[in-house]
Amino acid sequence: MAAAQSLERLANPWRGRVGRASRHTFWAFALAALLGGAHLARQGTGVWRGLVLGLLTAVAAALVVGHLRERRDWRSPRRTIGRVLVPTDRAFGERALRALTLAERADRADFSGSRDLARFHYERLLARASLAAVERTARRRAARWTWAGMALMFGCALAAAFGPMRILEGLDVLAATKGRAPVPMDWLQFARVSAQPPGYLRLPARQLGRGGLPSSQPVGALLSVEGVPVREGRDLVLTDGRTEVPFVSDGAGGVVARWTLTESGVLGVAARFGDVLIPEGKPLVLNARPDLAPVVSVEGAPRTVQLRDIERLKILYFASDDHGLRQIDLVLSAGEHEERRVLARLSGETTEERGGHALTSGDEFLRRMFLPVQIRVEARDNDPLTGPKWGKSEAITVVPPPVGEPEADRFQALVGVHRLMVDFLAWQLASVDAPDRVREEHTRARRVANEMGVVLQDTFGGLSVPTGLATFLRGQLGVLHTRPAAGASPIRRTEDALLATDVAIRGLGRRDARTVAKRLGDVAEEAADGARLARETEHRRRGLTRLDAAIDAVEAGAKQLQRLGELGLDLGSVARSELRRVQRARALDDLTHAELAARHLAARLRRPEPSAAVVRGGGTESGVGRGPATWGDPSRADDLFDQLASELEQLAQEHAAEISGVEGALSDAEASVDSSQLRDEAARRAATIRRTVADLPLPGAEPGSARAAAALGREHAGSMAQSLERLSLADAVQSGRDAVSALGDARRLSKRRASPTDWVDDTLLRDAKRRLDKELVWAEYWLRRLQRRAEERAKGALDLASNREQGLAQRATNLAGRGRIRETALPHEMVDQLDRAASLMRDAASALHEGNGQRGVRLQRKAQRLLEHSSTGKTAAESGSDAAERGRDQNRESSRRGMRTDGRVPDGDANQHAAEFRRRVLEGLGREKGGRLAPAIKRYAEGLLR
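Request: output the structure for the sequence above.
Response:
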């Protein structure tokens, strides 16, 4: 017990001084390790962070081990002697250790000496130890630990003084998880965030706040973050957690980063330290507003209509977009076929557009489709970032009739009228001696003609009777209820009209049968393509759907084809026979032979020739015979009518050329008249007109008011003045008349005084009107005088033109006479128009012979309008849809042969007309013309010549 007390007495100074100083030094070392590790951890890489973590772990372990070791040492007498007495007096300390060993051995049972003596020796030795020496040694040892700790603390103070934030940044980096530090820091001061919407939106930039409040911005907006760095030397970035944009210097001591917004997220400023980011505590929450696709609605959609039930399909649409519309299209689709038609091209600034479009039942796409056609309106926006987006409306489904049904209905309607004519002829033959025969005959003939008129005015699924054929039929039926010429039998007249009508209707049936057969050939080709699609690609179901739809369409079209006369009946029978091969292969799921049979059927229908010779020669199936097949037409009335129609068209063309020649002669004569003495006078009067109307109101008043009428009069007066300066007296006279009329309206409206502001000084209007009347009289006088001079100079040319005009008038008279003949009968109104045209042409010839060129030209123009209205067209002329179909066939054939055949053969007079046009343009350019638009007109004319 005494030994323990003595040992405690000796250990207290050491433990109190050296232990405290050593602990402080160890803590200073730990702090130095932490600060140094923080500096190293700022590198941010995995290697450096691992090394620093290892170092700090080792330091912490050393501190724990040292603490445990010290506690253990002070509990053990041997270690206490070793830590206290040995450093103080080594020899004494070793004696004390030996005494402790002897005392410990005395406690064991095998000790042979005196235990009390050993314990007494140990206690006495510890009592003799010098406490003062121990204290002196402890003070020296504590001083060394203190100096070491002070040195470490001084180093820590220097590290903290020169880079305190570096230490905090390093510690933040050291504590990072998944590349992101846990403690935010401020990196920018005076930060400012602005958002510039995409240029196509035409919106101004706006400032955004920071601090977590969400901000909604359009996709593609350019965000600019500007500020001054809080600390230099840091790599600052703008990031959303996945993508980073570095800050760059703005040249004025600040930094800036720009970010293009593509999706919603949180955007913030951060500093990059190797693999670690230290974020800023003020994120910017952004909601990206995408540019939505346009919204399109069509009135009444979705709905389904039958093509046969409509003549015009009105499509009223409304399109809207959140930013702007660029284009609106009408889209027609049927199966694999699609056609787009532009309805509107917009600037991209319009956000709403309302409009309409009408499709006729004769539309080419609708007529040549055999599948239901879906009609939509699609709108495209103006998004240049992610690409334009299309918005679609609900569809209007148009169900077309079977292929050939409109043609068959038209043909059967004409055949029905033909049967009425046959019945009429039968009644004539049976009622030769009936009382009141003439009146009854006229009534029945009128009834037939009325029925034909109804058919000719009707439409059949968008088809109507071609103009030339309709004119021919009206002419033939007009013969039935007219008084026959001397020696002409009513029965013979009816027979001739019946035969002529029969030939024309049969010709239409043959042409329609060929057209429908070719269209059915396209449908059969569609069936073959569907079979190949189902057989060779992964789209088996879609291919089978196309195949089945095409088979049904061919079958329905073949039935309609059989209603189109002899050729149609023949081709329809062939089509139905060949179609059965396709149906059998389809039933057996033999798509290869179904495709081959469909292509064979398509090739046969595209050669719409009869299967066997009708009169002579062979058909398609029977082989080529000795000559071409003929249908044995019993009447040539249609050919004679077509010849008359050609002569009428040629007469109209020649008469138009004659008018151009007369106008050219008058223009040449006017150009040769010396009017230089009028130029100065005209310029003076033009200046007077401008001064007279200078005080009249300017344009901009409400339409229909007195001020608006006065402003219109001022504009016409200015146009008159400009024409006078150019010596264009005809234009000046017309503008002057318009100006006088407008000023008269202004005076009348001003007297009503509908509103206090709608008032014009009546004196000003009266003086302006009086002055314009005076100038108008002068212009009319000199216009007539110059025209008379020009007519005198052109007297020879006008005489020649008079002779030619007389000849053309005689031709018109002859054609009118031929239009009254049964075989080439024209409708009465056309004959009357030809007679009036011939009369006007004779009057024009007389005026030209007398040298009155202006009156002659006016009469010629009136006659020309009548000639053009009398144009009949040929009986074999195709309707618009038939012509389009023929054009597609020719283009298809020419593409196979590598050449086009749909070009127009130029007329023989084309070069002469071109030369005359060139001469007139050159002469017009040679005249001296003034005005603001003269240079532009000259450039345009020179471009025409090139």
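The longest strand covers residues 325-334.
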